[in-house]
Amino acid sequence: MEEIVNRVANSNLKNIDLEDFYLPGERVLFDIKDWLFQELILKEKDFREKAETYDWSQLKDKYVAFTCSADAIIPSWAYLLLTSKAATYVKKCVVGDLNLLETVLYVEIISIFDIGQFEDKPVIIKGCANKPIPETAYTLLIQKLLPVAKNIMYGEACSTVPLFKKQKLN
Predict the structure, then answer these.
(1) How many Å is the Cα radius of gyration of the chain?
(2) Is residue 89 within 8 Å of residue 59, measured between CB atoms?
(3) Is pLDDT of 1 > 80?
(4) Which distant-in-sequence residues (6+ apart) come within 8 Å of 69 by Cβ?
């Protein structure tokens, strides 16, 4: 009987799964519409009071996206005030939705990702993920890999989509 050989495992293919970079921790969408007068108007005194009396410790070690789902004009200082109150408890906070929050987290991770091991190697960026990985994370990753990788593919080792192949110098 002939031995089964895993050619992918024995190849110099390098796999990157952005799901491995996913930071553990709860994501919270913090909607301030209930802090507005009639969910429309930000009254500074009332808003400051709510920010002062809110129990920020309940956001400890969470990732927070501040937003306002009401059709109201929110001055920039309001989000700055919220951030000043939450910052000592949360891991990260942004103004926007959960997708923007995830994007910011991946921007930070990819910016410090060491790509040295991918020098002149074929790379597969894994597709399909069970965690919410923003599309921007993939574009940032490929931009970082382009100067060093021999070629870049997307998908799984059994079925990849070629994306980039380094030109050979004559």
Answers:
(1) 22
(2) yes
(3) no
(4) 31, 33
Distance CA 81, CA 150 (A): 48
pTM of the full structure: 0.87
Per-residue pLDDT averaged across 98-116, rounded? 97
Q: Are strands 159-165 and 63-67 parallel, antiparallel or unpaired?
A: unpaired
Cross-strand partners of 124: 15, 153
Could you tell me the residue ranges of all domains in the chain? 7-23+115-165, 27-90
Q: Which helix (H) or strand (E) holds 165?
A: strand 159-165
Strands (DSSP E) along 6-158, which ranges?
Answer: 14-16, 27-31, 63-67, 92-95, 122-126, 151-156
Tell me the mean pLDDT in the region 76-98: 98
The rounded distance, in Å, linking the Cα atoms of 59 and 27 is 10
CB 42 within 8 A of CB 78: yes
